[in-house]
Amino acid sequence: MSTIRLTMTQALVKYITAQQVEIDGETLPLVAGVWAIFGHGNVAGIGEALYHAKDSLPTWRAHNEQSMAHAAIAYAKSSGRRRLMACTTSSGPGSANMVTAAALAHVNRLPVLFLPGDTFATRAPDPVLQQVEDFGDPTISTNDCFKPVSRFWDRITRPEQLISSLPRAFQVLTDPVECGPVTISIPQDVQAMAYDYPVAWFEPRVHRLRRQGPDPVELDAAVAALRQAKKPLIVAGGGVLYADAQQQLADFAAKHGIPVAETQAGKGALLWSHPQNTGAIGVTGSGAANRLANEADMILAVGTRMADFTTGSWAVFRNPDMKLIGLNVASFDAAKHRALPLVADAQCGLAALEAGLADWQAPGVWQEKAAVFTREWNKVVDEVTAPSDVALPSDAQVLGVVNRSAGPNGVVVCAAGGLPGELHKLWRTDKPFGYHLEYGYSCMGYEVAGGLGAKMALPERDIYVMVGDGSYLMLNSELATSVMLGQKITVVLLDNRGYGCINRLQQVCGGAPFNNLLADVLTGPDGLPDIDFAMHARSLGAHAEKVANLAELEAALARSKSISKSCVIVIDTDPVPTTEQGGSWWDVAVPEVSQRAEVQQAYRQYLAAKSNQRF
After folding, report:
1. Which of 1, 21, 65, 278 is the most exposed place for a label (fewest CB within 10 A)?
2. What's the angle, vertex CA 36, arms to CA 34 and CA 39, rounded to 5?
3. Three-state DSSP class for 372?
4. What is the C-alpha separation between 374 and 570, in angstroms, rounded?
5. How many Cβ atoms sit within 10 Å of the Cβ of residue 217?
6. Mean pLDDT computed over 289-315
7. What is the chain's Cα-based Rg?
């Protein structure tokens, strides 16, 4: 057997570069590159290996470990989970900083390869700098924190262990069911150890999207159930996009006259102007989709895990006879909530259902009701996103300006706060992957780094990051990286001086405004800081300006199109208003005992709302 002597990390890098993916007949590197912040736990080992592979596997330097991982996750999401990135850090705080991002990737079922350095496998110099010592288990390090937030986790304590570990890692990263974050922990001494690796192990491997067809018995049951439906509704999730099933969804909905509602991850799977698109569903849903959901007797959930924001904490489906079909590539999701499971890839599953249903259509009266509700909702969207000359515009008015400016080639990126709710209801998407919301983990600080990752995946499209002042202050460092790499993003920063979304939720639950808006927090003798976000963005190398109103915002967005580097546009907004139309209840527990009359009233309303929950 022919072998080649390499260090463990040289073998790791060589194996990574041998992994390829076929997309639309084109073969590309599966791993687009590696984000790296070097420290004593990875600079001499994997750092040296990456240096010699820099022409075939790019290495990018970031400014924060969590945000570089967010960029990698956004790249995978914007690539439809077909390509991915790796991230390497030193042991200790570097690896700990990536745990939040790993959780985000895990919740959203997105592939990223984490390669954190680790303490010495030999334990000769223990405890080393930054080592977390467990008094009862010397094998534990910071990297054990990745275990609950990884779909596959391993620690390489001997170089030959790579031979069995890496193929399993890449199987998880490319599998439509198991897809998610992988952590390969690499002790710094093992990184430098050598082994005679089989040459055949490094042969190029081309990964292809595996499509699973439905079981005949499950298919027959689903077809029979749909044929009995009088008020069917499709709930389209991110699995539609990841299966590249957009056209199948559009054709299926049109042929059978079934209205379609979209989750946060599924928004854009159907163009907003498609006749069957009734908009967002659930807590942040449209009036059209939620009114239909209240009546629906059959829900066809395609590629969605039916989380609480989608289901209105299971109170948006009011029909006591409602049945649920779970069309999902993962049986874990397909069978949730007493669903009739249809385990299949979304593209294969929709095609099989279409063949089984033949010429069946939803009743005409249901189709007409959906069309009327949708026309009414589109009027609402036009009204609440229309510009005005108010001193402090609402989030809805700002996103209306951005949506119109972005055009069909624009991609909006957002993650947390009040903006995702407004965007889910109101943003109009003209192309698949034009709506990029991280709302499975709702992680503040994802936005700027996510915009960078989206731009790297979709270089031909215009990326618009919408972010509040709270999230921007939490994690903004990759704005400098976007400038450094020449990856232009346009950031629209809405400054409402605090955590406006949670301030509103606090009051809905009967609480007094407290510790959310800056006006309601404890301060020192000098009072609140006067933060100049535009100056800060310029200090990171971006073009930046602050605008006074919506007209100036529109003009600034027009100017930004001719600027080659990343731009930041700051606008003050009103923290109070939100789009009242649409939406549904969300189960946020209210205290059963309180001295505040407002909390007591909120608790009574909470109990009344809970009576609508399905179980």
Report:
1. 1
2. 150
3. helix
4. 33
5. 8
6. 97
7. 25
Peptide bond between residue 93 and the one before it cis (omega within 30 degrees of 0): no
Q: How far apart are CA 298 and CA 384, in angstroms?
A: 31
The candidate with the shortest Cα–Cα distance to 71, out of 82, 84, 59, is 84
Domains in the chain (CATH in brackets) are 3-207 (3.40.50.970), 216-378 (3.40.50.1220), 385-572 (3.40.50.970)
E strands, 488-591, where? 490-495, 543-547, 567-572
The DSSP annotation for 346-372 comes to HHHHHHHHHHHHTT----HHHHHHHHH
Tell me how far apart the alpha carbons of residues 337 and 291 are, in angstroms, rounded to a whole number.
21
Cβ proximity of 327 and 303 under 8 Å: yes
Beta strand pairing status for 205-207 and 19-23? parallel
Distance of CA 128 to the CA centre of its chain: 36
- What are the structure tokens assigned to 91, written together? 């042991």
For the four alpha carbons of 498, 502, 507 and 508, in that order, the dihedral sign comes to positive
Separation between Cα atoms, residue 484 and residue 402, nearest integer Å? 25
pLDDT of residue 1: 85
List, in order, residues 6 or more apart from 169 with CB less than 8 Å away: 113, 152, 154, 182, 184
Q: List the structure tokens of 114.
A: 């984490």
Strand stretches in 488-565, DSSP E: 490-495, 543-547
Contact 141/112 with Cβ under 8 angstroms?
no
Which tokens belong to 70? 């967010």
Q: Are the CB atoms for 429 and 272 separated by under 8 Å?
A: yes
What are the pLDDT digits (tens) for 318-364? 999 999 999 999 999 999 999 999 999 999 999 999 999 999 999 99
Q: Which two tokens stand for residue 296?
A: 């629906």
Q: Is the dihedral of CA 337, 338, 340, 344 positive or negative?
A: positive
Read off φ and ψ for residue 19, nearest 5 degrees: -85, 125
Residue linked to tokens 């499209």: 461
Structure tokens at 548: 């006074």
Which residues is 36 bridged to in the sheet? 61, 88
Q: What 3-state DSSP class applies to 356?
A: helix
pTM over 0.90: yes
Average pLDDT over residues 88-103: 97
Distance CA 289, CA 275 (A): 13
8 A C-beta contact, residue 71 and residue 452:
yes
- The residue among 393, 416, 430 whose CA lies nearest residue 284 is 416
Q: Which residues, at least 6 apart from 124, have a Cβ–Cβ distance to it below 8 Å? A: 189
Report the mean per-residue pLDDT for the chain.
Answer: 96
81: DSSP letter: T
Rounded (10°) CA dihedral 400, 406, 407, 409: -140
The residue assigned the tokens 């099989």 is 352
Give residue 248's Cα distance to chain centre: 23
pLDDT at 472: 97
Tokens of 190: 């093992």
Cis peptide before 432 (omega within 30 of 0): no
Q: What is the pLDDT of residues 26-67, one digit of tens each?
A: 999 999 999 999 999 999 999 999 999 999 999 999 999 999
User: What average pLDDT score do residues 115-138 get?
Assistant: 94
